[in-house]
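Team,

Forwarding the record for the chain on the shared tracking sheet. I've put the sequence and predicted structure together so nobody has to dig through attachments.
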Amino acid sequence: MQCLEDLVVLGGKACIERMLALNVVEKLAILEKDNSQFNGVVMKFVKGVDKCKYLSGAERQVSKQQIVRKVKTTLKDANLVARIIGGLECNSSSEGSSRSNRRKK
């Protein structure tokens, strides 16, 4: 998983779009559902997108929306979907507040 996260961080927009087109997010969501060893794998993928230096803020937001949409369509278990989406929203709101705190200083 670390290799995949590094690929997302170091890759550009085309790399991330290609990964989305190849259904990587769907496969990660299925892995997270089926195997307890892969807990948080979708979260790590999104954190990698957040760390990507080659995406603008708007492109990051669009990528997150695409990931959320793909997770919702892939998983039918409402509890698992809610947990993953809740983690994504919690992560994005905490980062937004930390960014605004940096600007105020």
